[in-house]
Amino acid sequence: MNHLSMYGSSLALLTDLYQLTMAQGYWKQEMVETDAIFHLFFRKPPFKGGYAIAAGLKTAVEFLMDFEFAADDLAYLADLRGNDGERLFESEFLEFLRGMEFSCSVDAMPEGSVVFPQEPLLRVEGPLIQCQLLETALLNIINFQTLVATKASRICYATQGEPVLEFGLRRAQGIDGAISASRAAVIGGCSATSNVLAGKLFGIPVKGTHAHSWVMSFGSELEAFEAYAQAMPNNAVFLVDTYDTIEGVKNAIKVGEKLRQNGYEMAGIRLDSGDLAWFSIEARKMLDEAGFEKTKIVASNNLDERTIRSLKEQGAQIVVWGVGTHLATAKDQPALGGVYKLSAVRKNGGEWEHKVKVSEQRIKISNPGRIQVRRFWKNKASRFGGQGEFMGDMIFDELMGEPQSNIIVDPLDETRRKRLEGSGIDMLKPIFREGQYVGEDVIQDDIMEIQEHARHMLKYFHDGIKRFDNPHEYPAGLEKNLYDLKTRLILEARGFEPETSSSW
C-alpha cells in the first residue's frame, strides 16, 4: 500500500524554496534542455559504525510515480512574494511546471543492500530542472529510513538472533516519522511493531502487551492479570513491574496456572523498569520452578544495542526485546547526513561534462561522472549461496566505459589501495528509464523479503564491520582511472595544471 497516499494530494511542494527559485533560474537561462546526473550518498556510516542498510526506495518510487504540480500547488506558488513585494515566480514558469512530466532515469541500491561511504544509494539522471526539484524529498525519504534500518540492524545484531519488537510510535518524530521508522526498523531486522497503522500499510506483524494503566485500573494486580487473561487468553503477556516486580511474577504465575487449566498457555511476562538483568534471572528461576519453562521474558525500557549487549554479558534471561525511543528516533545520531551532489551535465544533447564539488575538507569533495558500484567476492562459485565473502567495492564511472583497472583507491588517502580480482556484481539497478517505471524486479512489496535480503547479505561481509567500537573498514574505493580524473578536475578547479602539483 502507498503510505504517501495518506496525504491525499500532490507532494511536489515537499521541497526547499531554493530548489524552485533555482528551477526558475534555469528556465530563464534557457537551460530546459540541459541534462544532469546527481548521486545521493553519505560520507560516514551512522553511529560510528562500519556500514548502512539501504531503505526508503519503495517510498521514493511512490513519490516519483505521482510527481506533478497540482493546480493548488501552482496557485500557492503564484501567491508567493519576494523581498520587493512582487511575485516570486513568473506566470510562464508556473505554466512550465504545470506541463512538466517526470522523465528522469533512476538507478538505486535495492532496499536491504549493505552500503558504504561514497556509494550512491540513488542515481538520478535527466533534465537538470527535474533533478534539482527532486533533491529535498529524496533526501528526506532515503536518509531517515536508511538511518533507522541501520540502527535496527545493529540492535538485532546485539540480540544475537532473538526477536526485536519496534515500540517507538509514541516517541517518534511525528506521524510520518513513526510510520517510516516502523517500516525501516523491520527492514533492518525487527520482527514486529506495535504500530498498528504501519502493520496495515506495510504488512508488518503487530505485537503488544498491556500498559501499567491496565493494572492500575483494577483493585489489585492479580485482578488485573485475571481480567486480561479473560480478555486475551491466547495473547497473555503480563507487565509485572507496576508495583513490585517479584510479586508481579508471582501473580503472573497464578494466572498462568488458571490459563493452563482452561487450555491456554501464558505467553510471557514483560519487564519495563529496574535492574533488567537481575529481575530477568530471578523471574526465569520462578517461572521454571512453576513449570512455565516456555514462558518468554520480554524487556523494554530505553534499550539500545549497547544496553542489550551489556545485559547479555550479565546473563540476562530476556529473549524478546522491545525497543522504542532509541530506535524510532535513532537517538544517538538523529540524522544520516546523506547528500545529493551534481556529477555531470550535458547541454542540448551534447557530450557529458564531468563536474566535481571542491572543498577544503577532503571528505566533502564529490565524485564526477555516472557512478556505479561493483561488489567483488572471493569465491565466485558461491554467488551469495556458499562460503564466499565480499572482498571490496569498486566505485567507477560508467561514462568512462568498463573499468580499465582492477585497483581501487581510498578517496581520503591515495596511498591506500587494493587490487580486486575476479568478478563482481553491479549494485545500482534500473528503477526508471526516462520516466517509465522499470523496477518491477527490484522493488519488493513484501517487507519481510527485504529484511531477509539484508540479513542474508550481511552474512557475506567480515564480521568486523558489525562491531560497535572501532569497526573494520570494508574496502570501498574509487577505480584508479576515476580517481585520476577526479584529481585532475580538482587541480583544474584550483587553478593548477595536473602535472604541476600532487599535494593537497
From TrEMBL:
Domain of life according to the entry: Bacteria
Give all residue intervals belonging to the Nicotinate/nicotinamide phosphoribosyltransferase domain.
166-350
Where does the Nicotinate phosphoribosyltransferase C-terminal domain lie?
384-486
Post-translational modification, briefly? Transiently phosphorylated on a His residue during the reaction cycle. Phosphorylation strongly increases the affinity for substrates and increases the rate of nicotinate D-ribonucleotide production. Dephosphorylation regenerates the low-affinity form of the enzyme, leading to product release.
**Any one of the GO BP annotations:** NAD+ biosynthetic process via the salvage pathway
Transmembrane residue ranges: none
Q: Which CDD domains does the annotation name?
A: NAPRTase_A
Q: Which biological pathway?
A: Cofactor biosynthesis; NAD(+) biosynthesis; nicotinate D-ribonucleotide from nicotinate: step 1/1
EC numbers: 6.3.4.21
InterPro entries per UniProt? Aldolase_TIM, N/Namide_PRibTrfase, NAPRTase_C, NAPRTase_N, Nic_PRibTrfase-Fam, Nic_PRibTrfase_pncB, Nicotinate_pribotase-like_C
Q: Mind listing the UniProt keywords for this protein, alphabetically?
A: Glycosyltransferase, Ligase, Phosphoprotein, Pyridine nucleotide biosynthesis, Transferase
Q: GO molecular-function annotation terms?
A: nicotinamide phosphoribosyltransferase activity; nicotinate phosphoribosyltransferase activity
Q: Which reaction does it catalyse?
A: 5-phospho-alpha-D-ribose 1-diphosphate + nicotinate + ATP + H2O = nicotinate beta-D-ribonucleotide + ADP + phosphate + diphosphate
Per its UniProt record, what PANTHER family does this chain match? NICOTINATE PHOSPHORIBOSYLTRANSFERASE
Per the similarity annotation, which family is this? Answer: Belongs to the NAPRTase family.
**NCBIfam families (alphabetical):** NAPRTase_put (TIGR01513), PRK09243.1-2 (NF006695), PRK12484.1 (NF009131)
| Role | Catalyzes the first step in the biosynthesis of NAD from nicotinic acid, the ATP-dependent synthesis of beta-nicotinate D-ribonucleotide from nicotinate and 5-phospho-D-ribose 1-phosphate.
The identity of this protein, by name, is Nicotinate phosphoribosyltransferase
Query: Which species expresses this protein natively?
Result: Persicimonas caeni
